[in-house]
Amino acid sequence: xxSKYQLKNSSLxxxxxxxxxxxxxxxxxxxxxxxxxxxxxxxxxxxxxELNENTLFDENYFKSLHRRTFESLYDWAGEYxxxxxxxxxxxxxxxxxxxxxxxxxxxxIKEDNYxxxxxxxxxxxFARKIAYYKCELIALHPFYELNGxxxxxxxxxxxxxxxxxxxxxxxxTPEVYIEASIECVQFADCSKLEKIIxxxxxx
Length: 203
Known about the structure:
Helix content: 40-55%
CATH superfamily: Fido-like domain
CATH class: Mainly Alpha
Order of helices and strands: EHHEEHHHHH
Number of strands: 3
Oligomer: single chain
């Protein structure tokens, strides 16, 4: 089982649980996780339909994925965290630097033309570039919760824009994916994630 988050500030959660305080006052873990899954499925349909040549995969877009997907459930949807967060032995970007580090990552993405012309490069190079930026955002871990699903959504939209299908992560077990993510955070090594993305890419 994956390690629980270790938070210095747990006021976001219902006391004695790992369930975030929410607008619907849900206190059942299974119920809230099912609702989160439904919201992310709706988000895929919405953002897929909205993709067009003017879409910019910038920081505002990234934040909007989180906000618009989960604002019906959480007050903090789309907001970056400002406290420190860890999971197991993995320490994510310190809360005080989330905003500034995010600006650096998205400045790089802007220099890469917002990752909008990657269909011109090989599948290998596409996987390498996506893995690099995905590792950066995994280590940043900017939101209070639901980072993984929104980060996947972000790169799936980029994949579709560039002529690929959604990245298929069913080629590996959750444990293998978690291990690849841990290596991103602890060692800045995105080689395992790159392989997973490459194997999950198809036109």
